[in-house]
Design a protein that fits this description.
Elements lengths: L16 H22 L3 H16 L15 E5 L2 E5 L1 H8 L1 H22 L5 H13 L1 H5 L3 E5 L4 E6 L13 H14 L6 E6 L13 H18 L7 E7 L10 H7 L1 E6 L31
Parallel strand pairs: 5-6
Antiparallel strand pairs: 1-2, 3-4, 4-7, 5-7
Length: 297
């Protein structure tokens, strides 16, 4: 008999393509779902959520409008009702924000009170009167100028009598003038800030690359002299203003001469400051227990 040849099984080498295609399809669907979830519109999501809730739990008895966006809440503050968002409500509820707002309001109120009082308060007026009386001779000689500001007193000294051009070394004839000013300021006890100012003429030296360094060096040199004459260093500070706080036009020699100056800023002495200038609100905490009405035997 003729033998029947056994047929060999055929091996399909492309069988992997079917599960691979399924995997790619599932990954595509997964990323589409993730993208859709990541870009949910909050208003539409709230509408969908409320609709599903009504469908599964029954229609609410009362008709309530659906709010899209930030819900407006009512906050009672200082006997007034204001419509604000939840973010603004949190800011108003923050003790830190409340304290900062209170401090700013108090500073503004102090400034308005001082302006109504003619530009200075009683303690500041007393300080200005003492300075003007003690420096009357220097004021008459046009060596210094005393200016009253709402919160401080300025004593302006022209630098053409203090320093040579482009230098921070005090001229010998100016040492006596500064010594007299120091003797006047020492017993007052007021904080002192010495500010140096220049004109807009550029300076580029090894010691002073710009007017910043020159103005600060001049102010620092005067502070050192004041310290040598007995003024406590803890009362003083130095500020170099450069050419950026002019009081006159730098286009003329007269204006540049006015801008080259040293200003001694005097704050109100602690002894003359009115009590309870600022009322700092206490941090929120548990309320103290009510006082007992029982009297001691």
């Amino acid at each position: 008999m003729r033998r029947r040849h056994e047929e060999e099984d055929h091996v399909n080498h492309e069988a992997w393509a079917i599960p691979y295609g399924d995997l790619i399809t599932l990954l595509l669907a997964f990323f589409v779902v993730m993208y859709a979830v990541s870009s949910v519109n909050e208003g539409k999501y709230r509408v969908l959520s409320d609709s599903l809730t009504a469908a599964f739990r029954g229609t609410p008895k009362a008709t309530v409008p659906i709010q899209i966006g930030d819900k407006v809440v009512k906050v009672q503050r200082d006997d007034t009702v204001a419509g604000i968002t939840p973010t603004q409500a949190l800011k108003l509820a923050s003790p830190m924000a409340s304290e900062q707002t209170s401090l700013v309001e108090q500073f503004q109120r102090m400034g308005r009170d001082l302006e109504k009082d003619g530009g200075d308060g009683p303690g500041l007026r007393q300080l200005a009167d003492q300075v003007e009386l003690a420096m009357a001779e220097l004021i008459e000689k046009n060596l210094v100028t005393v200016t009253r500001k709402p919160l401080w007193v300025e004593v302006e000294i022209k630098t053409d009598i203090l320093f040579p051009s482009g230098s921070a070394q005090i001229q010998p004839e100016a040492v006596d003038i500064l010594g007299r000013i120091a003797s006047i300021l020492e017993p007052l006890g007021s904080p002192i800030r010495v500010e140096g100012h220049t004109d807009n003429q550029p300076i580029r030296t090894l010691q002073f690359p710009s007017n910043w360094e020159l103005s600060a060096a001049r102010a620092g040199r005067i502070v050192r002299l004041f310290e040598e004459r007995g003024i406590g260093p803890e009362r003083m500070s130095v500020a170099g203003q450069g050419e950026y706080q002019p009081v006159a036009d730098n286009a003329t020699p007269e204006g540049r001469n006015r801008n080259r100056r040293v200003t001694v800023v005097l704050d109100m002495p602690p002894a003359l400051k009115p009590r309870q200038e600022l009322v700092v609100p206490a941090q929120a905490g548990p309320a103290p227990p009510p006082a007992s009405r029982e009297t001691a035997p």
